[in-house]
Amino acid sequence: MANLPQLLKKDVQRLDGALRDFIGQTDATAALIIDKGGFLITHQGDSSQFDVTTIGALASGAFMANQTIAALVNEPNFNSVYQQGEKSSMLVVNVDEHCLLIVIFSASIGVGIVKYYATATIKRIAHQLALARGRNPEGGLDLSALNVADSESIFKKKK
Amino acid sequence: MAIINQATKELQVKIVYYGPAMGGKTTNLVQVHDHVQTQAGNKGKLVSLATSSDRTLFFDFLPIEAMTIKGFKTKFQLYTVPGQVIYNTTRQLVLRGVDGIVFVADSQYEKMPENVESFQNLVDNLTSLKLNIADIPYILQYNKRDLPNAAPVEYMEYLLNNNEVQVPSFSATAHKCDGVFEALNMITRMLLQKFINQGASQQA
């Protein structure tokens, strides 16, 4: 599995720790780390009210669309996207080449404080992700138990 | 690139449905959403970012949790791209992080130039992302086989599957759910096989 990025338990614990600290500092509702391909990596906060998988997919698309607009207007980088709402607001911030931080927070909270504390949080997240990428985990996911010849067992159609 | 999360015991995989406009990409996802057997809570909502006339504007998105392998949940994220030529930048965005591709071709004779153009567009867009189609599992789905002006499968194979290594291809009538699950299961099987091979090469 050398080609697959793998996150170990300690990676996710440290990422979650960074998000919890960030939420404590900003009183944000929820914070998510996503891959720019749309995968949700981890999240913290009160996210039970949200479909975080879909938010991850949509936010990555929106962020990447803004990056493309940046290129069209000769801006080297739009590194965040901010959406202000009546009840909730959202900030999507670039973490590194591969990942984004999404913050959902009450509209009563100023975006300035969220951006301020996000800066340090992003560094912590990027550092941990860099460690994970640089590692060659010994314990890969052994899929050999799966009989891939039996493709019918993967997705079944309702009768 | 698929993500393995050892902490949450999840394997996340991204499959993109690609092809010419009005070829049936969104219909594939709708049929999967409507007909897939899953345990409660394992199927997410089908999200469509579409125009007022139901043409895909950005993408359709369907998350499904398929099975557990040795304690790992496998989560599949199915995307479509907008087929219309003007949305090429959007197609490039959706392809980011792709693990496997279902190319949905329109079987109607008059759509053959669009099929070929769209396939070349796929190759070009992967190249722009520094990816090579030879390295990414993909299959061909020849959709709309129920139409009277459908071209012979052999002709479509000649046009679209004429490389040194031929990929699996399926006839389909997506709006009747024919060939939809066959294509999805095959690309899934190829993806898992690729991961197993990567694991084996690492252990060697």
Question: In total, how many domains does the architecture of chain B comprise?
Answer: 1
Radius of gyration of chain A: 18 Å
| Annotated CATH architecture of chain B | 3-Layer(aba) Sandwich
> What structural class should be given to the helix and strand makeup of chain B?
alpha/beta
Determine and state the CATH class of chain A: Alpha Beta
Biggest beta sheet summary of chain A? 5 strands, antiparallel
What is the number of beta strands of chain B?
A: 8
Helix percent band of chain B = 25-40%
**CATH homologous superfamily assignment of chain B:** P-loop containing nucleotide triphosphate hydrolases
- Topology of chain B as a string of helices (H) and strands (E): EEHEEEHEHEHEH
- Give the amount of beta strand of chain B, in percent: 25-35%
The stretches of 5 or more residues of chain B where confidence is low (pLDDT under 50) are none
**Count the helices of chain B. How many?**
5
Query: Hey, which two chains have the biggest interface?
Result: A-B, 48 and 55 residues
Outline of chain A, from the CA principal axes? globular
CATH fold label of chain A: Beta-Lactamase
CATH superfamily label of chain A: Dynein light chain 2a, cytoplasmic
Number of strands of chain A: 6
What is the topology, as strand order, of the major beta sheet of chain A?
3-2-6-5-4
Report the biggest beta sheet of chain B as strand number plus sense, adding barrel if it closes: 8 strands, mixed
